[in-house]
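Integrase catalytic domain-containing protein
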Amino acid sequence: MNLLTTAIYRLERIYNEGRLHSSLGYLAPVEFEHNWLAQKRLESGLVI
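Predicted structure tokens:
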């Protein structure tokens, strides 16, 4: 990877995985998705 590609990749990871979003209840997107999927599993009875 060249330097620009590496920088964009790192920024994208920080933004999508680590940065807290107010629209998601101040959770990181990855954490929000994990919680959402867990809730859907509970609602459908697919507790794993």
